[in-house]
Amino acid sequence: MDDLNMKEILINEFKDDPIYKFCLINKLESYLFTESILEMHTETSYSTVEAGKILGRNDSTIRNHFRSDLIEYIAPERYGKYYRLDYISVFKLQMVFVLMEKAGKGSVDILVEAGIHASELFTSSGIKKPARQESNDLKVIRREPDQDEMIDDRLNDLEKNLAIQTIQLNIIKYEKDLNELDRIIGENESSIELIKLNEQNQYLEQRQLQLLSASLNKSFEKKGMFGFIKKPDNLDINMISKEVDDGLKAKKDQIIKEKINIHQDRIEKAKEEKQAIQKNLEIEKKNFEKLIYNTSKAITTTST
């Protein structure tokens, strides 16, 4: 079924619905027909989890409305502790959420518009029950407490608290691991710099010695006719320096390379681990923010 057909079906189904008219009066029509709403099927029933995905809400938030007087308007089908919703019930929930979030309406405002009567009270099993006459003739909508639902609520709270604590512990561990990896990277980088400095000092010392030795050898490489050493007229210092440098630099670079390889490998490994941990840390932080947001939102919705 394409988007247009579902929209036409919903408009036709709810054209006389007081809550739909309430949405139109508050100019909220553009928020009602989301992409996921228009992808519903008329012959499909949805669990609270599936309905939550369609509505972009946590299933616990949906169940909160089922523990309020709004259950009469939403009219889900109940099977023991579980609920199923057809496309009509899902769209009613959509209108409730939109009115609350976009127009600032409370559950009482919606109940009044829906025309819920005190003579039709709902128990936790969804069965209508005659209202008790109040002394001041004020009709009050009540629902009997459900022990299973209370236990479910407590379990949900425990699960949420446990999830929050687990995420917090993971965040602390990841941050500690990142600090340790930074320490490892810093130590190995310092070791590399120290190796380079030591080898440079040794190179300079050897260069001085070899330059002195080569210069002396060049100075007395010729002898006179009576066997005396004779100094050449021209001594090319630059050439001697180049010959010495060519040999020493290659040796120095090779020694440095061999000595720092192990430190570079440790740095690369630590950086790879750090990148993976940073990615996991960002995921956990987002999960934490989402969990806190959903929890506070559920509390706000329940109190409303």
Polypeptide structure, described:
This protein is mainly alpha-helical. The protein folds into two domains: 143 residues, no CATH class; 154 residues. The protein is built from eleven helices and six strands. A hairpin with a 5-residue loop joins strand 3 and strand 4. Helix 6 packs parallel to helix 11 and helix 10 packs antiparallel against helix 11. The relative contact order is 0.09. About 12% of the residues have low confidence.
Kindly summarize this structure in a few lines:
This protein is mainly alpha-helical and 304 residues long. The chain has helices at 3-14, 18-25, 29-32, 35-38, 48-55, 59-66, 71-74, 87-102, 107-114, 147-219, 237-303; strands at 77-79, 82-84, 121-122, 128-129, 222-223, 229-230.
